[in-house]
Amino acid sequence: MKEKMRELSLEGEVYHRLQMFEDSLRELLRLSECPEERQEMVSRKGTEFIYTALTEDVCRRCPKYRECFGGKREKTLAEISSILGKAARESRVDGRMASDEFRKQCVYFQPFMEEMAWLFRMLYQNRCWERRMSSLRQIMHKQMISQYMLIQECRRLLSAGTTLKGEKKRKLSLALLRRGFRFLEGQEMTDESGLLNVTLSLRPIAGSRKITGVLQALSSVYGKEFCNIGTGSWVRSGRNRLSLVEEGSFQVVFGICRRSKKGETVCGDTFSFANYNRKRAVMLLSDGMGVGEPAYNDSRKLIETFEAMLEAGIHEEYALEILHNILLTKEKAEYATLDAAVVSLQTGTLKTLKAGGTATFIRHKKTVERITAFSLPPGCLTEQRFEICRRKLYDGDMVIMLSDGMLDFETISDDVPRMETILQNIKTTNAQRFADELMRAAPVPEDGHDDDRTVLVAAVWETVRQKSRNL
């Protein structure tokens, strides 16, 4: 009982700390929020500074000073303003920007333009630094927003469960006891994908026991099949905390095939397959800029960082946004594309995220769909948006992700078939065999392919339980 009260108090303390952290981040966001302003290259204050400096350093020594800044003052200021306007558009000062009349009338025209060019360069550099600082402030603000949303999600998950009690608790305790486990406490919740999650605290009555007994007990009470989120297959002696999730209606099988550029030993593309918490299947592909070892290192670091955030439970969109903001702060640009395909194992919904990646294809039973995007790799521009598309998948559909080297043949000649035709002609439903056959079927120039080529395939199948329901 004391151990139970201690666990509950610790959870309450964690929840309270997360709430305080969330509140402090919200106040920081309000403090750091500032409206975006359109910054002109030469502001009004900068223009006045140039007027004053030109007048003091050049024009006061001119015999026509009283004439230019007396009766013709408005005309002189209009001429200077016109030159600065042209300079702002072209980011430089040139003597040809002045009117013919001004060039003839100005006694010190050459030193006048040289002084203006020097002053303009100084203001231009200052404004560039101001824009850079503004971009960094925006990046920091976006990072704080990402952290705020993550804290919100953690706190929501901590409080989302419902404690097992009443008749359901009695039935589950009895079902576990029959299989050699003593029930201590538990919670249940339905996540955003519609899957039932159950967290149990229990201990084996004697020694260690296989987790299959727990899964059978849950199935008998809920009437659903469950699987363990963790990797262990045994429940050790003592108190154990297990996280179990309802089995989804779909399963995904992956296939991979890739080739390095002709003359290279290392492929610059990096890929990843993963099944996160038995809820979503994720397929990742990154193409590093260039070829060989440098391209591989850039793409590998991008994939590994993105994977780590997904494993921590961060949503794909948030993870991509965080990754993009971090790359913006790097002094040395390390550009690599990022292509992600996320399949919900409950609903069979496909979500694609594209950051510079080439087309993704879905092969249905009778048709092939191409999903294209025109976004840049992460870390290129401060104000950058990524392409996100959603599609419904059905039993037997295949999702095919490619690096750009696989589609180079489409630009060679109009006589070669389109990728859709090639995909339709491959008859196998085995993911690995499909990837191998596609690599062989894609046309290659006579002198060999001049880029790395990677094929990722995800075959989507309904589970036996879901098929029986449909029948």
Give a written overview of the molecule.
The chain has helices spanning 2-32, 44-57, 65-68, 73-90, 100-105, 109-160, 166-178, 212-222, 292-311, 316-328, 419-425, 431-441, 464-470, and strands at residues 162-163, 181-190, 196-204, 209-210, 226-228, 234-235, 240-246, 250-259, 269-276, 280-287, 338-344, 349-355, 360-363, 368-371, 387-392, 398-402, 453-462. It contains 13 helices and 17 strands. It folds into three domains: 1-160, no CATH class; 161-246, 2-Layer Sandwich (Alpha-Beta Plaits); 250-470, Phosphatase 2c, domain 1. Helix content is 44%, strand content 22%. Strand 11 (338-344) and strand 12 (349-355) form a beta hairpin. With 471 residues, it is α+β, with helices and mostly antiparallel strands. The radius of gyration is 32 Å and the shape is elongated.
Write the layout of secondary structure elements.
Blueprint: H1 2-32, H2 44-57, H3 65-68, H4 73-90, H5 100-105, H6 109-160, E1 162-163, H7 166-178, E2 181-190, E3 196-204, E4 209-210, H8 212-222, E5 226-228, E6 234-235, E7 240-246, E8 250-259, E9 269-276, E10 280-287, H9 292-311, H10 316-328, E11 338-344, E12 349-355, E13 360-363, E14 368-371, E15 387-392, E16 398-402, H11 419-425, H12 431-441, E17 453-462, H13 464-470
* Total DSSP helices: 13
Structural class of the helix and strand makeup?
A: alpha+beta
Alpha-carbon Rg, integer: 32 Å
Number of separate structural domains: 3
Question: What name does the CATH topology of the largest domain carry?
Answer: Phosphatase 2c, domain 1
User: What would the principal axes of the Cα set say about the shape?
Assistant: elongated
The top level CATH class name of the largest domain: Alpha Beta
